[in-house]
Each structure stands twice: as C-alpha cells, then as structure tokens.
Amino acid sequence: MKFKNALSCATILAACMFGSASAADLTIGFSQIGSESGWRAAETTLTKQQAEKRGIDLKFADAQQKQENQIKALRSFIAQGVDAILIAPVVATGWDEVLTEAKDAEIPVILLDRTVDSKDDLYLTAVTSDLVHEGNVAGKWLVDTTAGKPCNVVELQGTTGSSPAIDRKKGFEEALKGHDNLKIVRSQTGDFTRTKGKEVMESFLKAEDGGKNICALYAHNDDMAVGAIQAIKEAGLKPGKDILVVSIDAVPDIFQAMAAGEANATVELTPNMAGPALDALDAFLKDGTKPAKWIQTESKLYTQADDPQKIYEEKKGLGY
Amino acid sequence: MIESALRFGHRLLPQLVALTIILLLIWLVFPGFFSMEIQNGRLYGSVIDILNRGAPVALLAVGMTVVIATKGIDLSVGAVMAICGAVAAASSVRGDPLIVTLLLAIGTGLVCGVWNGFLVSVLNIQPIIATLVLMVAGRGIAQLVTEGAILTFNDPGLIFIGSGAFAGLPMPVVIWLVFGIAVTLLVRRTALGMLIEAVGINRRASTLSGIQTPLLLMAAYMLSGLCAAIAGLIVTADIKGADANNAGLWLELDAILAVVVGGTSLLGGRFSIIASLAGAMIIQAVNTGILLSGFPPEFNLIIKAAIIVIILVIQSPRVQAGVTFLSRKSVR
C-alpha cells in the first residue's frame, strides 16, 4: 500500500515536471536483479520515478536473481527495439554474447550498481558506488569528530569475504592511517544483519570492560548498527554519546535512530543510480557525447545536523 | 530413584563434560568470562549471554528432538521462524492487541507443523523432502508478509519477549527453560515418550500394536512448528523487527546439530530433550566464545567446526566403548 502511494505521488510529481523534462519519447528497458533487499526495492522505485520524471517509457523486468532471466529480458528488449537498456547484472561473467547482440542492434547498454567482466566497448557506461570510498568517508568523519582525542573503535564487518566487507574495511582503515589516536580494538563479522550485529556488539561490550573502553562503533551497514544500538542501550550506555555510531547505506531506520540521537552518522549508498545513468544517456543520444566508462555515484555523509526525521519521512516510501 | 538419577547423569555426562571444558577454555582466553553483575534489575554477563543467545536453537532443539526420535527430521524450522516473526510484526504494526499477535504467530507455526505432518504421516513422503518444501518456500511467504522490507514495531509487550527480564533472567532464557522442562515432563511422565520412541524404532510394528501413528507423527511436527513459532517471536522481538531474509537463517542446521551433539541418534528411537538443550548450549558457548576471543572473523567457522568434530569423536560409539573398556580395567 505504502509502495503504491509512493508511486502515485511520483506520478503526480512527474506530471508536474513533465513540461520541463527535455527527453524525447524514449523507450528504455530495465532489467533488475530482483528484490532481495530493501535497498534493491528502493533502487527499483527510484528508477521508475526517474523514468517518469523524464517522460521515459520504462519497460521493467524482474529477473528473480537468475542470469538466464536477465539474458531473456535483454533479448526481448532488443527484439522490441528499445532506445536503451539499463541492467543491474546479477553476476559479473557470461554477458559477452547478449551485450554483442545489443551492440549490433545499436542499443546502448548502461550497467547499474554492479559491473561485468566483458570488454568495455560492449556497454556505454557503468554507474556504481565506490565501496572503498564509502569506508573512507566514514573514517574521515570519525577522524574529524574525535579531533585527536584517543578513541578505541570497534568494527562490525559485513559477511566475511564479501566485496562490500573487504572494501569498506579497507577504506576505513585508509582514512584512519596516520591518526594514532584512533585504534580498532575489536573487529568481527555481523553478517550484515540486525540480529548478529546485536549479538556481536554484546560480546564487544563484555570484552571491553562493559563498553567503557569503547568510544566509537563502525558498522559496515546500517542494519548491524541498528542491532548494535539496542545492545548498547541494554548495557546501560547511551549510543551516540557514550559510544559514537557511524555506519554505511543510509536506510530509513538509521535516520530514525539519528533523530533520536542514538546514531551519529551514515554514508549514503544511493539507490538513485538511474538518475546519473539517464543524464549520461540523454547527453549521448543528443549529440553523441560519450560518457566516462565509470560514473561514480556520490557517497554523501549524513549526520544528526541534516534533519534526520525529514529524511526518514522521505525515504520511508521508497520501498526500503 | 537414586539409580534412575544416576543413569540420567551417566546419559548426560559427555555433554556436561564437553560444556565444562568449553566454558573453561573460554575463561582461559577471556578471564572476565564468569563475572556477573546486576544491571537494570537483571543479571548481566557473558554466561547469561550464552543462555540468552542460545534460546532460539534451544527451543528449536526441543521440537527437533521429538521429530528426530520418530525417525523424521524438520528442515523447515528456520523458515517457519521467519514466517511467524513476520506474522507477529505485521499483526503488531496493524495495532492488534498483544494476545492476538501471539496467538496469530503461534497459530501460524502450528499450521506449518500440520502441513509438514500431513506430508509425512498421511502422504508418507520422506521427512527430509517433505520439510524441504517449506524450508524453500517459507522465506518467500515471510517476504510476502513483510512486503520485502524489515518490518519494525514498537509494541512494548512484544518487545518484552525478546529483551525483557523475569526474576533477574532475560525473558528468552525463562521461556526456553520453562518450555523445555514442560515438554520433558509431558513426554517422560506419560507414555508419550515411549510411544514416540516406538514409532521411531519401527513404525509398522507400532501401528500394528495399536499406536495411532499418523496422529503421533502429526503431533511431533506440530510441536516442532510451535517451537519454531516461539523462537521466531523471540528473534523478532529481540531486534524489534521482522527480517524475513535473515531471521532463523541456517538455524535448522544448528538445531539438528544440537540434537546430535546431545547424543540422540538420527535413526530415531531413544531421545533426551535435556541432552539436546545441553547440546544447544554447547553450540552457543562455542559461538559466544569465538566472539569474545577476538580472533579475526575468518577463523570463526574453522574453530567451530574443529570443536564440533572433537565433541562428536569423543561421543562416537568406538571411542565410548574404548573408554568404558579402559575404565573397567583400571577399576579392577
């Protein structure tokens, strides 16, 4: 219901803005992986909104986590003669053939959120975030906030071995380099989930003198931070004050925590990958400007000063 | 009386020894392990964490023990947890009173149990396949209920189940202790336990001797569903939200492991719920110990596997027979 309301709002919004949007009557195919996470659902919502805003006829195909469904969707888009294709590829390999078919049909393909192992002349551009940079932004915030004061940091890692866990850890450690006041004293995996985030934080608190030794928590995603915040509260400490909390993703619930003063900062992994993609496509179709092969989305930092309650209300309807 | 107590002690001995050794090992790498204090009117410490975090697997192990004793297995419990948690959260968000929310969640668990029981006892499908159906489909159902998002709620009554305290103990601990003892009494103070063992050892012979086998199997899977529903309520209440993707993920395997570590044979027959609960605590002690030890997360699974292998080897019939043989010799 919420979802439908948001969509109809978007439709009205789109109707108002239609006059100003310059895109011609384009038809674009969008092959989405599925809806395995709230973020993915929000990406779908925002892509549809962006298309409507620009008066684009978006053909949407949900692949339900299967590459063969995506390849089928791409072939059907090509057969329908769409003007361009957006795709969030579920895996990195096995795209050469279908991308060549799209190229032969002179249909530009833009990759969203993930990349592929094919030669880069087979697609127009890839719009993704930089995971290392996200960790870096979070680390910089902590460096600036602690301003040289000694601070023991505990880290909740993502699923062991996953690329977000590896890269977000790397970026954070890079930012901390040269600031000897900041020390990562404990680092464990919380599997990107609330339950594990809470459980692991409980053990961190016990292991570090009831939490008195901990001055900040860095979580690789917001869900683990939300779980950890509960553990901190149950241990009789104040999250956001006794223990600073910084995490990544910017899902709605972390803004609620920030509004309550229980979380301090989050770095946005924007679900609006379609915006920059469609901008690049517009320019390309208009006068053939070739975009760079990689468009990096902004990793925006949000803190308690950014009116978190308002952002929570805005994000709530996106299907997270 | 004393003799039966002794026999019971002997049955539990391997589990208790394993648990003690693990707790001592954790104490060695983390000296503050046994320290406990009262905070916010409840006990607070690492040992309490083990009891508290072990609650879902302990509850699942109760139902799983009974199902395994009938020579069955229930792979769907993790998914049923997710469904029941989702139903509870959806009901709470809608503004239902707490009692309705709880009844809905528990009813959902029982319905899932009836489904499994129907496939196994009426259609005679092999349990591992029959329950696989719901294991695969369950998370999808849960996602339909939560509409793909993490459904959060603020009902203090429901949250109390996950993070409240009763008599100084966290609520999940109270729930699994009371539930485990109640089911143990139910099966051991009546003929029920013996009937379950009989079905597990020889279903055909049991039926011929007049046991209502289909009914008993149905009841076993319903109990498993009930356990999963309570476990689902606990994990959902604990994080104040229903996470259809992750609630109870892989816990069916931990529950089966708890039963096996507890010494109940997967081939059915004799069982001990208390030993399975001890098995669940062993698994959780290993998990918590790894977290407290401060090893890098890459080692988590390796350490866990190594400890489990050691426990299983010690419990294996060959080693047990050897130990008995040696100890008899030395006594003489």
Automatic annotation (TrEMBL), chain A:
<keyword id="KW-0813">Transport</keyword>
<dbReference type="InterPro" id="IPR025997">
    <property type="entry name" value="SBP_2_dom"/>
</dbReference>
<dbReference type="InterPro" id="IPR028082">
    <property type="entry name" value="Peripla_BP_I"/>
</dbReference>
<feature type="domain" description="Periplasmic binding protein">
    <location>
        <begin position="28"/>
        <end position="275"/>
    </location>
</feature>
<dbReference type="InterPro" id="IPR054837">
    <property type="entry name" value="YtfQ_transport"/>
</dbReference>
<dbReference type="Pfam" id="PF13407">
    <property type="entry name" value="Peripla_BP_4"/>
</dbReference>
<feature type="signal peptide">
    <location>
        <begin position="1"/>
        <end position="23"/>
    </location>
</feature>
<dbReference type="GO" id="GO:0030246">
    <property type="term" value="F:carbohydrate binding"/>
</dbReference>
<keyword id="KW-0762">Sugar transport</keyword>
<keyword id="KW-0732">Signal</keyword>
<comment type="similarity">
    <text>Belongs to the bacterial solute-binding protein 2 family.</text>
</comment>
<dbReference type="GO" id="GO:0030313">
    <property type="term" value="C:cell envelope"/>
</dbReference>
<protein>
    <submittedName>
        <fullName>Simple sugar transport system substrate-binding protein</fullName>
    </submittedName>
</protein>
TrEMBL record, chain B:
<feature type="transmembrane region" description="Helical">
    <location>
        <begin position="127"/>
        <end position="146"/>
    </location>
</feature>
<keyword id="KW-0472">Membrane</keyword>
<dbReference type="GO" id="GO:0022857">
    <property type="term" value="F:transmembrane transporter activity"/>
</dbReference>
<keyword id="KW-0813">Transport</keyword>
<feature type="transmembrane region" description="Helical">
    <location>
        <begin position="158"/>
        <end position="187"/>
    </location>
</feature>
<feature type="transmembrane region" description="Helical">
    <location>
        <begin position="213"/>
        <end position="235"/>
    </location>
</feature>
<feature type="transmembrane region" description="Helical">
    <location>
        <begin position="247"/>
        <end position="267"/>
    </location>
</feature>
<keyword id="KW-0812">Transmembrane</keyword>
<feature type="transmembrane region" description="Helical">
    <location>
        <begin position="12"/>
        <end position="30"/>
    </location>
</feature>
<feature type="transmembrane region" description="Helical">
    <location>
        <begin position="50"/>
        <end position="68"/>
    </location>
</feature>
<dbReference type="GO" id="GO:0005886">
    <property type="term" value="C:plasma membrane"/>
</dbReference>
<feature type="transmembrane region" description="Helical">
    <location>
        <begin position="99"/>
        <end position="120"/>
    </location>
</feature>
<dbReference type="InterPro" id="IPR001851">
    <property type="entry name" value="ABC_transp_permease"/>
</dbReference>
<keyword id="KW-1133">Transmembrane helix</keyword>
<feature type="transmembrane region" description="Helical">
    <location>
        <begin position="75"/>
        <end position="93"/>
    </location>
</feature>
<protein>
    <submittedName>
        <fullName>Simple sugar transport system permease protein</fullName>
    </submittedName>
</protein>
<feature type="transmembrane region" description="Helical">
    <location>
        <begin position="274"/>
        <end position="295"/>
    </location>
</feature>
<keyword id="KW-1003">Cell membrane</keyword>
<dbReference type="Pfam" id="PF02653">
    <property type="entry name" value="BPD_transp_2"/>
</dbReference>
<feature type="transmembrane region" description="Helical">
    <location>
        <begin position="301"/>
        <end position="326"/>
    </location>
</feature>
<keyword id="KW-0762">Sugar transport</keyword>
